[in-house]
Amino acid sequence: MAKVRTVFRCSGCGADAPKWIGRCATCGEWNTLVEEIETPEAIAITGPSALAVAVTEVDITNAAPQPTGIGELDRVLGGGLVAGSVTLIGGEPGIGKSTLLTELAALWAAAGERVLYVSAEESTQQVRARAERLGALSESLYLLAETMLPHIIAALDDVKPALLIVDSIQTVVDPDLGTAPGTVVQVRECAYRLVREAKERELPVVLVGHVTKDGTLAGPRVLEHVVDTVLAFEGERHHSLRLLRAVKHRYGPTNELGLFEMTEQGLVGVADPSGLFLADRRGGVAGSVVVSTVEGHRPLLVEVQALVSLSPLAVPRRSAQGIDHGRLSLLLAVLERRVGIHVNRDDVYASAVGGVRLVEPGADLGVALAIASASAGVALPEGVVVFGEVGLAGELRQVAQTPRRLSEAARHGFTHAIVPALAAAGPASITAVRVSTLAEAIDVLRLSPT
Ligand code: TYD
Ligand code: MG
Q1: For atom 13 of ligand 1, which residue has the closest CA?
Q2: Are 165 and 117 in contact (CB under 8 A)?
Q3: Which residue has its alpha carbon closest to ligand 1 atom 16?
Q4: Does 136 sit in the ligand 1 pocket, CB within 6 Å?
Q5: Ligand 1 atom closest to residue 264's alpha carbon, by position in its atom list
């Protein structure tokens, strides 16, 4: 069989180069060259052409998501897996992708659905050992230790599964392409082929993709355009908490967060994330503030911590963990100019505890108050949560889902909430203290510099 020849093509201007170079010689852009097949095979017309149909006539029965049985995964997927869709789960090695998918396979197999688990990395013995450990042994779960794409597709004909899992896409090769496994061409073309199989067979497919910290590995980046859904599985290796988010999702919203804990029994959904995040919290410490935030539809109580100390450096350090760096700078400027809290000669560290990322504006007030509290050396009173967006004028702005935030705080025993002036009401067990500016919030909590 003739080997396919590849070239490097600039993804900006489309110019070709015979080998990879860092900068496109034609348009001068950096890092835009991607390996491509030189002459893509002509696209054969197969079957009759599709007919245009009235929008009201489109059959959507197959587009309904089928629950996976893993609550946190369904939350992120907006209900479950859609037939014919391809989902990519990306994450660093060791984060728990194979564990999650083994659990998924086990649930479907236990329900009598055939599952084909292609392990292109581990032997069937290794996968069986994991499945055994997770209590996932079932006659409906088929394992295939195979990297060759044609063999994987042959196995689809053979097993006729209701779910295909490929772990991982980076190790799958199509021998016809002639390039080495893991190259951009291999990963992308194999994924294309699997997408086609998924659509033709109306089969949900889940692919695993490894990414390194900087996302450099060939694969997930180029794959994002090929698949329907991209999920990111994150967490710190030394921490048991795992976060699952949708980065791209053709069948639903991308703002829901799934939370798992890695245990001896595999991944377990976190039923009460607020309780988990607040478990190690010590009250009465300056610089610690509990924020009532929302991720998608779920309210979460998260502790924000700040530390302010005189800097030995000419340019003081600003460190943000789980908090947007730009947002931190903005809040420091507002504190400086609108409230008169001066930290421009101090190192400022701010972090969201527990590995969460606070990206929504409702966390502003918490970050600003944590810095004010740390700077003054005064702790917030017990039982107080806060939320609200801080504007450039130092005003507090309303945020979405106030009643949910208040209810979650009340449920965890908080008695007072510092909220924007126009915030909606919550349950009776929590007193909303309404303030219209950041300065007023700092006053109410007696965090003003003396
Ligand atoms: P794994 O799913 O193999 O990660 P990935 O496929 O993303 O590379 O899991 C990695 C880690 O999870 C491994 O260090 C062992 C641990 N683990 C548990 O703590 N409990 C379990 O039940 C399982 C199966 C794995
Ligand atoms: Mg794995």
Answers
A1: 94
A2: yes
A3: 96
A4: no
A5: 20
Instruction: Please work out whether the CB of residue 210 comes within 6 Å of at least one atom of ligand 1.
Output: no
Closest-lying ligand 1 atom to the alpha carbon of residue 233: 7
Q: How far is the CA of 93 from the centre of ligand 2 (A)?
A: 7
* DSSP structure string for 57-79: G---GGGSPBP-S-HHHHHHHTS
262 ligand 1 Cβ < 6 A? yes
**Is the beta carbon of 98 within 6 A of some atom in ligand 1?**
yes
Alpha-helical runs (H) found in 234-377: 273-278, 325-334, 364-376
Confidence of residue 13 (pLDDT cuts 50, 70, 90): confident
For 265, the 3-state DSSP assignment is: coil
Query: How many angstroms is it from 322 CA to the middle of ligand 1?
Result: 24
- What is the C-alpha separation between 341 and 438, in angstroms, rounded? 11
CA 258–ligand 2 middle distance (angstroms): 19
The protein residue with its alpha carbon nearest to ligand 1, atom 23, reads 266
Indicate the pLDDT class of residue 49, thresholds 50, 70 and 90. Answer: confident
**By 3-state DSSP, what share of the chain in percent is helix, strand and coil, each rounded to 5?**
30, 25, 45
Q: In the predicted model, is pLDDT for residue 39 greater than 70?
A: no
Alpha helices in 24-70 (DSSP H): none
Residue 110: alpha-carbon gap to chain centroid:
28
Residues 64 and 82: beta-carbon distance below 8 Å: yes
Q: Spell out the residues 6+ positions from residue 31 whose beta carbon is closer than 8 angstroms to its own.
A: 22, 23
DSSP 205: E
> Residue 131 Cα, ligand 2 centroid: separation in angstroms?
12
pLDDT tens string 147-156: 999 999 999 9
State whether the beta carbon of 106 lies less than 6 angstroms from ligand 1.
Answer: no
pLDDT digits (tens, 9 = 90+) for 102-145: 999 999 999 999 999 999 889 999 999 999 998 888 999 999 99
CA 392 to chain centre: 29
230 neighbors 191 (Cβ within 8 angstroms): no
Based on the number of CB atoms within 10 Å of its own CB, is 413 exposed (0-12), middle (13-18) or buried (19 or more)? exposed
Q: Is the pLDDT of residue 355 over 90?
A: no
> 152 and 118 in contact (C-beta within 8 Å)?
yes
What lies within 8 Å, CB to CB, of 70 at 6+ separation is: 100, 103, 104, 107, 269
Alpha-carbon distance values, 259 to 253, 269, 276, 316, 407 (Å): 17, 6, 11, 35, 20
Residues 177, 4: contact at Cβ < 8 Å? yes
3-state SS assignment for residue 181: coil
What is the Cα–Cα distance from 239 to 250, expressed in whole angstroms?
31
Q: Is the CB of 91 under 6 A from ligand 1?
A: yes
Mean pLDDT of 332-348: 95
